Amino acid sequence: MGAQDGTLNGLFVVDKPQGVTSHDIVGAVRAAVHMRRVGHAGTLDPMATGVLVVGVGNATRLLNVIVDHTKTYAATIRFGQRTTTDDADGALVDMPRAAALPDVGMIRDVVSQKFHGTIEQVPNAYSAIKVHGRRAYDLARAGEHVELEARPVTISRFDVGDARPAAAANGDAVLDVDVTVTCSAGTYIRALARDLGEDFGCGAHLTQLRRLAVGDFTVDDPHVVTAHTKTREYTNRDGERVTRARAVLDVPADDVAAHLIPMVDAVREAMPTIAVSRDEARDLRYGRWIAGHVDGTSAAVVEDDGDVVAIVEQANGKTIRPTAVFPAAR
Q1: What does the alpha-carbon distance between residue 163 and residue 320 come to, in Å, rounded to a whole number?
Q2: How far apart are CA 128 and CA 48, in angstroms?
Q3: Which helix (H) or strand (E) holds 176?
Q4: 227 with 31: CB under 8 angstroms?
Q5: Which residues pair with 119 in a beta bridge?
Q6: Confidence bin at 150 (pLDDT 50/70/90)
Q7: String of b and e for 267-302 (b: at least 16 CB within 10 Å)?
Q8: Measured in whole angstroms, how far is the alpha carbon of residue 33 from the centre of its chain?
Q9: H or E segment at 164?
Q10: Residue 271 backbone phi and psi in degrees, to 5
Q11: Residue 216 among the catalytic residues
Q12: Does 329 or 69 have the greater pLDDT score?
């Protein structure tokens, strides 16, 4: 099945470049596969690069599961400066240097004591979290006061690597520290940077962020699609010169389908699977419950032909029920 007939069902692992939004990547994939039914599993900020899982066709129904997978990031934290957004895209916040810059040993000690396991984290005001139906970043950009509540997140890995003393563009003495973090969905790495800076009294923000993995989908996946950022200038209706960035896939449109992770492989990477018979597949597609047991959200697959039938969950002690069903493979 090709991209031209609108029948693609599966996932793309896109290595998002810096300077474009996750929605820009979705737009680039839509243009390449000539389909509207395209979505992504977990937003990356424009500054960030790395793994963005993009679903097409029936696989868009897998995205709500994938978005909850653990994430792994490589980042650089700059100690000695704080910004409005807690990353390099924000404006510097004036703050007195109340404390000396920490050394890498001090940072590792604080990380091991305070930033492992389940912690309470307050997201940055410039985030996609909705407040009374509006995105927090829209409120913050409009000058409104945004106060978000702390929420639990889980840090399963927080490795502190190399540290490099440096001078920032404005001459401030700073310390750039490389870290690798594996965390639960909903964790803001820039909030970790901010909170570390507050602990040392010197401020901190992210200067680089790269997502290495979303669950089992990794940046070195053999199917990965790389992309680059292309800018263009134009004059708007007010006569102003505007620069607009867009995402461009590095794979020719005719070759994009070759990078697709097919539906059956996609569900096996995204969640546990259970084998069902063709009769059970028919029942599930009619919304009926069948006998069985699953640990958490799973996918029902007819193993003989790789037909992905449904996403299922436990209904009671003896039966499972479909929460989403897929049409039979042609």
Answers
A1: 51
A2: 15
A3: strand 173-183
A4: no
A5: 153
A6: confident
A7: bbbbbebbebeeebbebbbeeeebebebeebbbbbb
A8: 22
A9: strand 151-167
A10: -165, 165
A11: no
A12: 69
pLDDT by residue (tens digit) across 225-251?
A: 999 999 888 888 888 888 888 999 999
Q: How confident is the model at residue 5 (pLDDT cuts 50, 70, 90)?
A: very low
> What are the residues whose beta carbons fall under 8 Å from the beta carbon of 285, sequence distance 6 or more?
309, 310, 322, 325, 327, 328
* 28, amino acid identity: A
Token duo for residue 59: 């696989």
Lowest mean pLDDT among 9-23, 35-49, 98-112, 231-245: 231-245
Candidate list 5, 15, 24, 45, residue with the active-site label? 45
Tell me the C-alpha distance between 26 and 32, whole Å.
Answer: 10
Full set of structural domains in the chain with CATH: 3-69+216-260 (no CATH), 71-204 (3.30.2350.10), 271-323 (2.30.130.10)
Strand partners, 92: 83
- For residue 320, is pLDDT > 60? yes
Q: What percent of the chain has pLDDT over 70?
A: 90
Would you give the end-to-end CA distance of the chain in angstroms?
A: 10
Buried b (16+ CB within 10 A) or exposed e, 117-144: eebebebbbbbebebeeeebbebbeeee
Is the pLDDT assigned to residue 177 strictly greater than 70?
Answer: yes
Contact 106, 200 (CB under 8 A): yes
User: Are 197 and 176 within 8 A, CB to CB?
Assistant: no
Strands 10-16 and 49-56: antiparallel
Give the global pTM.
Answer: 0.89
